[in-house]
Every structure is written in C-alpha cells, then in structure tokens.
Amino acid sequence: MPALQRIRRPVTHKGKKFLVDKQPKLIENHKQTLFIQGKKTSPIVMSCMKDLYQLKKPDGKILSRRNDFLPFENITPVEEFTRKNNTSLFVFTSHNKKRPHNLILGRMYDFHLLDMVELGVDSFNSLSDFKNEKVSPGIKPCLLFAGELFEHNHEFQRLKSLLIDMFKREDVTNVRLKGLEHVIMFTAAEDRIFMRSYRILLKKSGTRLPRIELEEIGPSVDFRLRRTKLASDDLFKLACKRPKALKKKTVKNVSKDVFGNIHGRIHIPKQNLGSLQTRKMKGLKKSRTEKAEMRKRKSGQEGASPTKRIRNEL
C-alpha cells in the first residue's frame, strides 16, 4: 500500500495568495511568459530575447541561469519551470552549429505542452540600434499580420495564434485614439517571418482626424521557420473551449440597430373582446326583452342536437 502524500498547507499570507492565484478562474489572469536560456547561446539570440522581454514587460519573467536541455528532445524541464513560475508561455534560446541563433516559442495547456515553434534569427536589429523615442512600457500593442500563409497554411495559422497569445494583454471594450502608440507587424513570405515594431505618431492634418505616421523603433527581426510541434485538432479545440458561464445567453425577440438602439418584439395573445368590461352606461345596457331572447337562444342550443346547434350558430 503506497504511503500517503503529505499535503503542505501555506503558512504565510503570501503563500495563501499565491495558491489562490494559481487556481482556475472564469476569467484568467494575463498570460505570463517565461524566458529561458539554453546551455549555449549567442549574443544575437540573447539580445533578441531581451528585446522580446522588454516588449512583454511586466507580464514576463527571465531566468538568469543556463539550462542543459533542449525542448524538442525533452519538454519535461520546461513544464516544471512553467508550473513553478505559474506561466503559460515560454521562450527558449539556444545556439549550435546545426541550428544557429535558435529561438523557440511555446505555450502550455494545464502546464503541459500545447504548441511549440522553432525559429531561426537570420537578421536582427535591437531596440538600442534605433536612436529615437520608445513607447511607454506595458502598453497594449496593435498586432498586424500580412501574408496569405497566415490564412491558408496550418503551421503559420498556429504561429499566428501563438504570437497573438504572446503579445496580447488585457481585453478592452473601448479604444482611445491617443492610446494607440505601438504597432507590431508580422509579414510571412515562404518560410520566413519578418517582425517590425513601430511607434504611431499623430500629426496635424487640418481636419478632425489626425494624420498618422509610423516610426520604426525596433526590434527588427527576420525569422526563419524551422521545426514545429503542434497539438492535435481535438486537443487544440479542448484548449480553446470556453466555460458555459462566459457564453452569452441569446435573448429572443431583442435586436440592435446600427446606432446601438435596442428594439424588442412583444407577443400578445388573442384577446376576447366579448368579455371586455366597458363603461356601464344606461344606453349600453341590454333591455329585458333582449336578455330574455338570449336566454331562450341558449336554452334552445343546449337542448338541440349537435347538427342543429351548428346550424343555429351559423
């Protein structure tokens, strides 16, 4: 009989808060990204990882120690790191003769690997290479994807979804024009992905709407798609499933027009106008002779056969 495993309960308030934060929620927290170094790296891929970390702040955590493993050969250490740090995304850097300047992007589902994509850095210009003003940290970027591969290729579709998870921040319902400061654009061509980062400048145009200009601020990276390890369609569908409590309930007979006005349709049952109570006026009351005729007619219909009753009614 196996020994019972001891359950360690939190003692401090910080420990209790950490365990509560790890529990599943209807609306999850912002997705955190863990940046991991391999056993051997290059200055190019390290600088690229640090720039991605600057774009991801404050929803990112970087590990300073080097780790002797490769995710495509053994994913277990990465799963342990993500479970320990409570992160759902990871970036792993490595460098060798066969795959130089290697960058691996991946995401987890229930702290197990869901998708993983290996990219090679062909060309790189860091944030410090662009001598201009940068955007404020923690701002929500606008993501643009160009290229038919993002729509028709299965691997590029998953890579697009992974990049959206990587740079997505909090959900917003309204967008302020001056709040749009940062644009990250990804362009797909053959097996290459071009990443460019711009700052939005609002210039005077003489009209109500400003003139928009884009100024490149970095980083500028040319990636090459190498290896992929993608989840099956069933597992991916399960990972994207939303809880029933978050699904919007359809309200019948309610619609909205283009201006946002709500219109409702009310269904009223058929009314019996014969039993409608009217104003009791002397002129509207029935006379004695009319009441007597109605009594005779009712008594005659009750005593008559069904065929005669139908004829009388007709």
How would you describe the overall organization of this protein?
The chain is an alpha+beta fold. It has a domain at 30-171 and 178-244: Brix domain (Rossmann fold, 3-Layer(aba) Sandwich), CATH 3.40.50. The protein is 26% helix and 28% strand. It is built from eight helices and twelve strands. The strands form two sheets. Strands 1, 2, 3, 4, 5, 6, 7, 8, 9 and 10 form a ten-stranded mixed β-sheet that branches. Strands 11-12 form a two-stranded antiparallel ribbon. It is elongated and about 115 Å long. The mean pLDDT is 86.
User: Number of DSSP helices?
Assistant: 8
Number of strands: 12
The largest β sheet comes out as: 10 strands, mixed
Task: Look up the CATH topology of the domain at 30-171 and 178-244.
Answer: Rossmann fold
pLDDT under 50 segments (min length 5)?
Answer: none
Q: Based on Cα principal axes, name the global outline.
A: elongated
Structural class: alpha+beta
- Rg (C-alpha, Å): 35 Å
Ends: how far apart?
89 Å
CATH class category of the domain at 30-171 and 178-244: Alpha Beta
The average pLDDT value, as a whole number, equals 86
Strand content: 25-35%
In the CATH hierarchy, the architecture of the domain at 30-171 and 178-244 is: 3-Layer(aba) Sandwich
What is the string of SSEs from the N terminus onward? HEHEHEEEEHHEEEEHEEHH
Overall helicity: 25-40%
CATH superfamily of the domain at 30-171 and 178-244: Brix domain
Compact description:
The chain has 314 residues and is an alpha+beta fold. 26% of the residues lie in helices and 28% in strands. The N and C termini lie far apart (89 Å).
